[in-house]
Amino acid sequence: MSIPLISQTMRPALRPRHTSRFLSARRVGATRSTWRSYGLEHRRRQSTSQPGRGSGGPGEVGDSHESKSSGGFNEKSRFHPNYTQNDSPLSSKMLEAAATALASIVVLGTGFGLGGFLYHKFYKWLVLYKMERAFQPGDPVLELAAIGKQIPTSIASTQGPDSEEDHWILRDEQSKIDAIVNGTDRGHYHLLIGEKGTGKSSMLLDAMHKVNGEGVSMFEAHADLEIFRIRLGKALDFEFHEDYIGSYFSERGPRDTTALLDIERAFNKLEKVALKRRRTVGRPLILIINCVHLLRDDDDGQDLIELLQQRAEQWAAANLVTMVFNSDDYWVYERLKKLATRMEVTSITDLPRSQAIAALSKYRQKYFREAPNLNILSEVYDRVGGRLTFLNRVAKSPDMLKTCDNIIDVERRWFLNQCWILGMEMDDDVMDQQKYASAAMVLAAALVAAESTQSASHDDGSHNIPQIPLHIARQIMTRADFIKSYDHINLFTITSTAFVRADSVPMQRAFRSICNEPGFDEHLEKTLQRISDIESLGRTREIVAKDLVLGGKYKILLRDGERRGEKITEVVLEEKEKEDDD
Question: What integer is the mean pLDDT of 345-354?
Fold first, then answer.
């Protein structure tokens, strides 16, 4: 009979409320101590609900059974599949997850950081390696120029590139250019200045060919600084960090800058390469900038020239890099002269008579199988002078004298198309252009007139083109700003010694033919008078008097002002008094 009593006693422990609490505790993974506290709480409530049962009655049996049943349940729970002896609380699991995440972040960050650092170091090494390779033998400029076909300095020959027979014109300046390019002449930077077609670039290419471009890099200047930057990068094999992928992790790219800053960065890298070369080879690098006159004579162009000159001065003093500037115009010399301390100026002029005639005779004998008459060769020199570009065209022509006349006619038409004057009938809208043209005509007439006072040739028979000092030329034109433009378009030239003369012998002959035309002086005088009249009209102010009716008039009075020497002009309108009707 005690068993049913025990069953009745256990019923309160199996109520749904306590069962749900028990299941909830199991789902959240309660520990063993939680189950023990739950059993003690249940026995306390049971003893409170049945106080009459003693230790020896049925209640004792129930208590004993409850204790056994509770103890038996706890023992069984140990062998439950989800039971673990060392279950941890939620906070410890969160700490463990945080530590795992932090370790992953540290590992990944270290990997990315180390990889980025190694890539950065590798990229810096690659930049210097590529720049060193740009100065190794074999320059792209030599391939593009095809120096074996450059007629003004050399003719392709089967005797080899180093043979003297390969050259049909050997200039005196070539030995100096060779010393500069091969690194023998050091401690200075150089400016080659001369008229277009005198052979400056050809001599540089010839000198590069002799050393196979080893330690030399050459590129063409340009008026646009961005294009200048790209050409400099091509010559130095420098990408200006445009291929640097490390910028993916930065807000601003490395190219977010100006062209001048990029050029400065390129020179910083070049300086490192030059320092390494000086330790290993002992010779400086050679950087040739051709056609510097193509830069604009404005603020940007002047800033670029100043940057180039500062580097040239520093590198020349340290024997790191020898910079060579090649220019056709005088204004480049003016800019460099201001800060120059280690600059050497080499003026490249026309060939003298003896060299020009000997070169023409040699060329005709070798390639036309003829022995030209000396009188014809002298006449050729008298007409076109010793300009290499003209001698090249004449030497390849079947009729040399006719080609000389064509050259003179081309120069004459070029001058007239740029600077012809329009006379008294010109419109006032073209006054600015006519000022430019008339100033050129006045200077041309002055050079033609100077032929009577200056010797026409030197002692060796070479041409002596009439020349005028630069300041006198500006005084003759009454303008100081036009002469640089004339030099740029190859009408006149300004020498390195600041003398103004015709750009070439054919141009001087063109000046002579124009100024000797009948009526030229009168036409020039009328043009100058018309310009003066238009300027006078522009300075004149016209006053129109109105309201002068019924006999009215203006009265102009000039009186002294309040201060000494001050004059005041008064204009008063006087009207005629009306007559009385009487």
Answer: 92
At 120, list the tokens.
């950065």
Strand pairing report for 343-348 and 189-194 = parallel
CA 46/CA 216 separation, integer angstroms: 106
Residues 6+ apart with CB under 8 A from 147: 153, 154, 205, 206, 209
| DSSP 8-state symbol, 277 | H
- Identity (one letter) of the amino acid at 248? Y
Q: CA-to-CA distance for 218 and 134, rounded, in angstroms?
A: 10
Assigned token pair, 306: 């100043």
C-alpha closest to that of 222 among 294, 145, 150, 282: 294
Look at 228 and 1; give whichever has higher pLDDT: 228
pTM: 0.73
Distance between CA atoms of residues 381 and 384, nearest Å: 5
Nearest to 267 by CA among 300, 299, 313: 313
Rounded to an integer, what is the distance from CA 456 to the centroid of its chain?
Answer: 45
Quick one: 184 exposed, middle or buried, by C-beta within 10 A (0-12, 13-18, 19+)?
Answer: exposed
Q: How many Å apart are CA 568 and CA 295, to the nearest integer? A: 54
Strand partners, 217: 287
Cα gap 200→212, rounded to integer Å: 18
* Cα-Cα end-to-end distance for the chain: 165
DSSP state, 165? G
**Token pair belonging to 223:** 């008026």
What letter represents residue 118's amino acid? L
Q: Is the pLDDT of residue 160 over 90?
A: no
C-alpha 187/C-alpha 318 separation (Å) is 7
